Amino acid sequence: MLFVWIALWSVGLILLLADPRSSVNRWLSAVALFGGAGALAATLDNVIVPYIHEHRQSREMEQILFRAQGIASLSSYYGLPYAFMMFAMAYRPIIASSRVRRFASLTLLLPVAGFLIFTPSYNENSPITFTAVVWWAVPCILAGTAIILLGRSSGGDLSRAHWLIVFAVLPPVLFTMAMSYVLQAMGWLGMWRYNVWFVGIGVGVFLIGLFTYGFLGIRVLIDRRRLDSTLRAVTSGTSILHHAIKNDIGKMRLFTDKMAAYAVKSGQDELLEDIRVVQNASRHIQEMIARVHRRTEDLIVRPEEIELGALVRATLKPFEPRLGNIRLQTTVAEGWVCRLDPAQVGEALGNLIGNALEAMNGEGRLFVTVRESKRELTVEVRDTGPGMDRTQTAKALEPFYTTKGGKETSFGLGLPYAYYVMRKHGGSLRIRGKVGVGTRVYLTFPKRSVKAVRLGENRYAEGGVGAHG
C-alpha cells in the first residue's frame, strides 16, 4: 500500500500543479488524492503504528497517528465517490447552469453528513457502515462512469485523449467500488487490499499517456511552455540581429553609393558592375533578415469584431487559382462573430493553407472546416498529402524547422508564427499527421477568449471548388 499511496498522491499533485484552473484537473486530482488517502490509512495501520508500538515510542504519538489513520480512512471512503462524480460532471458538463451545479454538488454531500451523524464512529475493524454507505457510493460511481462513457466528445481529434482517461481512471475506480464497498457490505472485509493491482495498471496507463500523447493537456502544457521560451529567445535574437545588420547594411550602401559615383565619374565600368553586385547582395541580406524579423517579432494584436466564416472564405479566395487538380471542400459554422485580429489570424490561416497546397503538389483534396463545440470554435485545415510522422509533428512548431528542403524562401517560421498568433488570442494550435494519409491542423479559439457571439440560428454551409476534372 505504500506504493499506492505514493503513486496516487504523485499523480494527484501532477494533475493539480499542471493546470489548477481546470475543474477537470482539480477533481481528477481529488480522486487520486482521496484514493491515496485510503492507502495512507493502510500504511499507518500496517507499518507505521506497529513500528512505533513495537519500539515503545511516545504513546501520544501513537494516538495522533491513530487519529490521522481514521481521518485518512474516512476521507477516502466518503471522498472518492463524491470526487469521482464531480470529475465526471466537469469532464462532461451535463448541467449548464452554475447555480444548478453548485446545488447538485451540495446535495451529493448530504448523505455523507447523515452517515457521519447517524452511523457508528470510526473503528479499525469497521471504518464505516458499509451496508448503508454502499447505497450512496455505488450509484455515484456508476452514474459518473455513465456520464464519462456516454457523453458526446468535443471533437474526433480528441478521442485518443478521451480513451486514455477512460482506461486510466475507470478500471481502478470501478474495481475499488467492488472491493471497498460492495464486497465489504456483503461481509467480505479487507477486500480493499486487492485494489493495488488495478491502481497500478491505472498509474501505468497515466504515465504512458503522459509521456507519449499527453494526459488532460499536461504534455501540451509542457510543450507550450517550451515553445513559448524558444519563441521568446528567437524573437530577442532576431531583433538584435536585424538591428545590427540594418545598421551595417546602411553603412555599406552609403559607401558603395560613393564608390559607384566615383566609378561612373572615372568611367570604370567593370568596377561599377562589381559595386552593383555588392549592393544587390546587401539588399538581399537586408530583405531576408527583415522577413525573418517580421515573422518572429512580438505581435501586436488589434482585435475587431468579425464573422469567422467570412474571414475563412476571404482567406481561401486568393488560393483558388493555385488549386490545380486539388479539390477544395469547405464546411463552415455560420454566424459566429468574434473579437480577433483579422490580419494576423488570416495570415496564420493562409500559412496553413499554403503549406497544405505545397504538400499535395497539385493533386489531392483540401478540407477547411469551421466547427463549434460548447466552449470552442475550431478551424481545421486537412490535406491528403504525404502526411507527417510523429517526429515531424513534434518538431513542426519549432522555429526554423522545415521539411521543404532546398527552398530558399522557406525559413520554417510559418507554423511557429501561426502558433504565436493563436497564443495571443488565448487559443491553441494542434497538429495531427499520419504518413501516407495526410495532415490535420487545428486552430482552436475558446469562445470566452474571443468573445464569440452567434448571430441568428446556427447553420452549416458546405461548398466545394473543383479544379480541372
TrEMBL record:
MF terms (GO), sorted A to Z: kinase activity
The question of whether S-adenosyl-L-methionine is a record keyword is answered with: no
Instruction: Quote the PROSITE patterns the UniProt record gives.
Output: HIS_KIN
Look up the domain of life of the source. Answer: Bacteria
Reactions it catalyzes: ATP + protein L-histidine = ADP + protein N-phospho-L-histidine
Which key words are in the record? ATP-binding, Kinase, Membrane, Nucleotide-binding, Transferase, Transmembrane, Transmembrane helix, Two-component regulatory system
Q: Where is the Histidine kinase domain?
A: 240-449
UniProt-listed Enzyme Commission number(s):
2.7.13.3
Q: By its UniProt entry, which SUPFAM superfamilies does this protein fall under?
A: ATPase domain of HSP90 chaperone/DNA topoisomerase II/histidine kinase
The portions of this protein that span the membrane are 71-91, 103-122, 128-151, 163-184, 196-222
- Entries under PANTHER family matching the protein: SENSOR HISTIDINE KINASE, TWO-COMPONENT SENSOR PPRA
Q: What is this protein called?
A: histidine kinase
Native organism taxonomy? Bacteria, Bacillati, Bacillota, Bacilli, Bacillales
